[in-house]
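Dear support,

I submitted the protein below through the web form. The confirmation email said the job was done, but the results page showed an empty box. After a refresh the structure appeared. I'm attaching both so you can tell me whether what I see now is the final result or a partial one.
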Amino acid sequence: MVRAEDRATVWLPLGLSIASLIVSILSAFKNELFDFAPRLVGGALMLPQTEPRSDNLQFVLPLSFVNTGYAEGIIEWVALKFVPTVGGEEFVCDPIAEIDLTKFLQGRRHLHAENILGAFLPFPLESKKSIGKAILFSPQLSADEQPRLFVLGEYRMDVYLKASSESVPQKMLSVEKALTPKLIQDFRAGGSIFVNNREISL
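What the results page shows now:
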């Protein structure tokens, strides 16, 4: 007959070994299992006209915010950086509003009060969830607080995301030839421009 003390002696080391193995596995896969891991899926860039018409460039970019981790976190902000590949100078655009994309597309891709939902604000993103937003971006003002006038050129667009899980913003998407001289000229001629982003890299 096996005494209780003997059974404990047999099973205790095995139990400790299993517990140690579980801790090792959880430690190895901690980032995948427990961290907040936001990703971005980009849509087509749009250069909307306003009513009344303006020559100041603004951008509407539909984005899907996807949390591939199991922890909830906060999306603090997202920003665009345009980097010239031919001519021009780089500039940064801040998120200023969220757009009702359906109304925007139905309204000839012109910005007006009825298709602007409100200011872009930080928002929570639950584990294994995604949220779609169409965001209006506006270039940062120059030193004299005047809208920037852009030199005709070819620009790459980089999309940066600041999440609560990171101390600094991370570059999430990069789109080559997001802006070209012809697109800028067409916009200045009064058109709302739709850019099909085929050259997206991560």
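Response: this is the final, complete result; the empty box was a page-load delay. The two ends are 65 Å apart (CA to CA).
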